[in-house]
Amino acid sequence: MSKLLLQHEEVIYPTYPFHYRGTLRKPSHFPAPVDCFKNNSLLFCIRMASKIFGVKLSLNSGKSDGVCVSLYSNDNIPKDKVTDLIGEIRYRFGMDLKLEDFMNIASDDPLLAPVEYRWRGMRPSCAFSLYELLCITIVLQNAQVSRSVKMLQALLRQYGETVQFDGEELYAFWLPCLLAEVEEQELRDLKVGYRAKSFLHVSRFFANNPSFEDEIRTLPRDSAAKRLQEIYGVGPASTGYLLFESLKHLDAFNHVSPWEQKILSHLIFQGEIVPMERILDEARKRWGSWNMLAIHYLFEDLFWRREHVKIDWLEALIRL
DNA sequence: CATCAGGGCCCTG
DNA sequence: CAGGGCCCTGAT
For the residues A59-88, what does the mean pLDDT come to? Predict the structure, then answer.
C-alpha cells in the first residue's frame, strides 16, 4: 500500500456544454473499488510507464464550468508527464467531443428530447485504460452483476495495488505483464471459471503490444472492432462496450444483449419483446450516426431514475 | 437435494 | 452459421 501526495492542480475546460455529473458518474455501471465518487468528486488511478498516479476530478468552485484536476503521486511529477496525464484525462472523459448535432437530432425525437435536455453535455466516459476496461468486460461475460463484482474483487486483491490519496483507499489495476505470467489454475482458484484463459490471452496480448491502445484510438470504428475481436476472449458484446466507452465511437450500436433487449423493448416499443435486429434498425433510423450515444442517454437516465424511485418493470428485468 | 439460466465466447461440424 | 460446452452462483 502506498500513500500518494498532491503534486499538481489545475482547471481544464471541456467543449461546451459539458454535463459534469452525467459524465463522471454512471449509474448503470457496477460498483468496484477502482474508482470512487464522493462529495461530487471522482477518484481513480492512471498507470503510465508503470507508475501509479492518483487522479481527483472535481467541480471547479469558481464561476466558470471547468473541471478541477488534482494529480497525486509519491514524488514530483515532471511537466511533460503532467501534460500527458491531462491529455489522457481529456480523452478518457470525452472532453473534446462536439455534440451540437446530437442536440439537434434529439430535439426532434419525442422519446429522446426530454432525456437529452436533462443530461445535455453528458459524454461517454471511462476512467480506465482499454486493457482495464477489457478486463471488466470479461468479468461481465455470462454472469450476473453480483458475481462479476466478486470476480473483480478477487482479482484486485490478488494482483492489484492499493493506494491511498485524498483520504480514500483504492485499487490500481495490475499491469498486463503481471497477469500474463501467472498459471491458469491460479486464476481459476479465484473462481473466474473459463474466463481464466481469456485473461491470460488478453494480458499477454497487451504486454506484447504496449502501444496497441494508442494505435487503435486512431482507427475508424470497423477496423477497431476487427482488431479487438482478433483477441481471444473478446467478442461482439465486449467490443461494443469498448468501442463506445473507451474509444468514443458514438455510432457503435451494433449489438444488444438479452437484458438490454428487454429494457429497450420496454422503452422504445412499450413492452413487447422485440428482436435485436428490429431494435438496431429502429435506432439507426431514428438517431443515425448518434445511435449508441442516444442509447447511452436513455440507459443512464433510466438507471439514474432508478436510484430515486422504484421502477417496477425494471426491477423485474434485471437481477443483482 | 438437483437443476438451470445468466449483462458471451470459442470451437466444432 | 447453428449449437454445444464452459465456470460458478443464486434462484427455484
Answer: 93
Q: Is the CB of A28 under 7 A from strand B?
A: yes
Reported as half-sphere exposure (CB side, CA atoms, 13 A), residue A45 has a value of: 31
The pLDDT tens digits of the residues spanning A262-303 come to: 889 889 988 778 888 899 999 999 999 999 999 999 999 999
**How many angstroms is C1' of B3 away from CA of A53?**
48
Cα–Cα distance for residue pair A238/A241, rounded to 1 Å = 5
Task: Answer for A188: CB within 7 Å of strand C.
Answer: yes
Question: Any residues with CB less than 8 A from the CB of A317 and at least 6 apart, and which?
Answer: A259, A262, A263, A266
> What are the phi and psi torsion angles at A112 (to 5°)?
-85, -30
Which residues in chain A, range 46-105, keep a C-beta under 7 Å from any nucleic strand B atom?
A: none
> For residue A103, is pLDDT > 60?
yes
The answer to whether the beta carbon of residue A146 comes closer than 7 angstroms to any atom of strand C is yes
Does the CB of A261 fall within 7 Å of any strand B atom?
Answer: no
A318 in contact with nucleic chain C (CB within 7 A): no
Q: What is the pLDDT of residues A2-14, one digit of tens each?
A: 999 999 999 999 9
pLDDT digits (tens, 9 = 90+) for A218-239: 999 999 999 999 999 999 999 9
